[in-house]
């Protein structure tokens, strides 16, 4: 008895999903997939810092007792 109810409901939901996919395909929902990804990035992001990579690192600590030799 339950199969007589579940089979038509599942077929109707599958047909509804197929119709929604075809509607989205015809209305251009999949035309520009990369554009949506680039719209998330703001146009004024902070610029890259200038200089060498090692300029950002902390200076090497030297031991005063050994005269700079560790």
Automatic annotation (TrEMBL):
Q: Which organism is it from?
A: Albidovulum denitrificans
Q: Which InterPro entries does its entry note?
A: Cyt_oxidase_maturation_cbb3
Official protein name in the record: Cbb3-type cytochrome oxidase maturation protein
- Domain of life here? Bacteria
The annotated region (Disordered) lies at 50-70
């Amino acid at each position: 008895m339950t199969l007589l109810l579940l089979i038509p409901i599942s077929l109707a939901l599958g047909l509804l999903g197929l119709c929604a996919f075809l509607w989205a395909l015809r209305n251009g929902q999949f035309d520009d997939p990369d554009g949506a990804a680039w719209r998330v990035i703001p146009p004024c992001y902070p610029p890259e810092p200038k200089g060498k990579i090692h300029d950002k690192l902390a200076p090497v600590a030297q031991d005063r007792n050994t005269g700079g030799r560790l």
